[in-house]
Known about the structure:
The protein folds into 2 domains: 33-217, Alpha Horseshoe (Serine Threonine Protein Phosphatase 5, Tetratricopeptide repeat); 314-466, Pectate Lyase C-like (3 Solenoid). Strands 1, 2, 3, 4, 5, 6, 7, 8, 9, 10, 11 and 12 form a 12-stranded mixed beta sheet that branches. Strands 13-14 form a two-stranded antiparallel sheet. A hairpin with a 2-residue loop joins strand 13 and strand 14 (461-466). The protein has helices at residues 2-21, 34-37, 40-63, 65-88, 96-102, 104-116, 125-134, 153-175, 180-204, 258-267, 295-304, and strands at residues 314-318, 322-326, 334-336, 344-348, 351-367, 370-386, 389-395, 401-405, 408-413, 422-426, 429-435, 445-448, 453-458, 461-466. The chain is of the alpha/beta class. The model is unreliable at 15-32, 222-239, 243-253 and 302-308 (pLDDT under 50). The protein is globular and about 75 Å long. Helix 4 (65-88) runs parallel beside helix 7 (125-134).
Amino acid sequence: MEGKLIERLEAAVTRLEALSAGGVSARDLPDVGVEVASDPSIVAFDDLMANYAARVSAAAEKIGGQVLDVTKILVEALSVQKKLLIEIKQTQKPDMAGLAEFLKPLNEAIMKVNAMTEGRRSDFFNHLKSAGDSLSALAWIAYTGKDCGMSMPIAHVEESWQMAEFYNNKVLVEYRNKDPNHVEWAKALKELYIPGLRDYVKSHYPLGPVWSASGKKASTAPPKASTPGAPAPPPPPPASLFSAEPSQPSSSCPKQGMAAVFQEINTGNVTSGLKKVTADMKTKNRTDRTGIVSAGEKETRSSSSSFSKAGPPKLELQMGRKWVVENQIGRKNLVIDDCDAKQSVYIFGCKDSVLQIQGKVNNITIDKCTKMGVVFKDVVAACEIVNCNGVEVQCQGSAPTISVDNTSGCQLYLSKDSLGASITTAKSSEINVLVPAAESDSDWGEHCLPQQYIHVFKDGQFETTPVSHSGG
């Protein structure tokens, strides 16, 4: 009996020394006893960080920059979750408002990563999105039962990683032949969640966290006293990841928009607030209005269409590595002819224009474009189409990967050399792929990519198949 106690004390001291060496001070952790510090679930979480999170950090140290910054926040979020797991073992289960306040430190760490992905896309956008989307897996700790609106903890971790894997695969494709450190980072990030966090939750918290029945009560934010005569407080910000405020019934809130219009109609006093229109107020009798458009107005409107409100148009090579094409409107003769396989092309905010890329480039990204046409010969890594509407992209050479994300209306023209391309789609619709016919004088073959799927639970797992329509 004494031997086992000594072993548990030594294990607790070893873990506290490891935390101190890793930069976590004693004041950052709750007041824990030996029983809590040596709990198998806490020991296993330390192993999770030592075996998986350390690999992600080591790869990020070699890359540096924003990848290192986002990885530090990721490790910080994991440390916060460990602290919360320790507190849960000493705290009674709070109500929904108390739970949101209890999980606020974890939510703040997650929001830091989300803030890094906002604004203009950086060169490491896929790294930031992959890390940011993956952190939603840590929300498994908020599971309180089948009526809480969340999936079970194990399923939640898996679903959250599936959302992040789309951008993680982009990192693997972009850097598989360029920089092994980025590939190692992406692989380590995946293993942190699958199987790392998933197996941890499966072993220790398959039904969610276990709160203490006799522990202290969770602290809640004190309500602010209202001052007589003071102005009303501003409306609350949008709900965060761990928002626990239940939605109020519509009957308790004043109706707005069209709901208010229909409520007014139902009262019967529809015309009570209308003003009478006299003869001189009618359009046909007004002398200050005319239906003739002058030539000067036409020239003004046509000239203003060539300049975007977002900024001046750009077509330039930056730092010798990146072609930037921005805010081009109504330009049908854009050409990039002096390019090489080490350069990338970023097309942003263009409308009703056509760009030709006459040479091999490393990567092509088309972002927030409308009715844009892009013709290119060869791409080394991938062609990405993001947040676009009604675009046409033609590959005259080879392209190993084409990805379409959050796009409505996309026509892809493939050459014979690019028929083996891997096409990835997410949150997109109306995607058609045109391929050359077997005979040179025949028409192109058009194939639409499915956007509706049927999921059937069979033999212990879901089977997914695209919807097929037949005119029977």
